[in-house]
Amino acid sequence: MSALTTPAAILPNRPGPMGRVSDFLWKHPHVLLAILLGPPVLWLGVIYLGSLFALLLQSFFSIDDFSGLINYEFTLATYRQLLSDANFDIIVRTVTMAATVTLFSALIAFPIAYYAARYAKGKWKAVFYLGIMLPLWSSYLVKIYAWKLILAKEGILTWAFTKLHLLWVLDGWLALPIIGGNSLSVSYTGTFLVFVYVWMPFMILPIQAALERVPGNLIEASSDLGGTPQQTFRHVLFPLALPGIVAGSIFTFSLTLGDYIIPQIVGSSRLFIGQAVYAQQGTAGNIPLAAAFTVVPIVIMGLYLFMAKRMGAFDAL
Amino acid sequence: MTAAVLFENVSRHFGAVKAVDAVDLEIAAGEFFAMLGPSGSGKTTCLRLMAGFEQPTHGHIEIFGETAEGVPPYRRSVNTVFQDYALFPHLSILDNVAYGLMVKGIGKEDRRKAAEDALAMVKLPGYGQRRPGQLSGGQRQRVALARALVNKPKVLLLDEPLGALDLKLREQMQEELKSLQKSLGITFVFVTHDQGEALSMADRIAVFNDGKIQQLGTPEDIYKRPQTRFVADFVGSSNVLSSATCAKLGVAAKAASLRPEAIAIGTSWAEQLSLPGTVTARSFLGATNRISIDCSGEKIIVASPAAMPVPDIGAAVQLAFSRNDLHLMEEA
Question: Looking at the domain covering B238-329, what would its CATH class be?
Answer without folding.
Answer: mainly beta
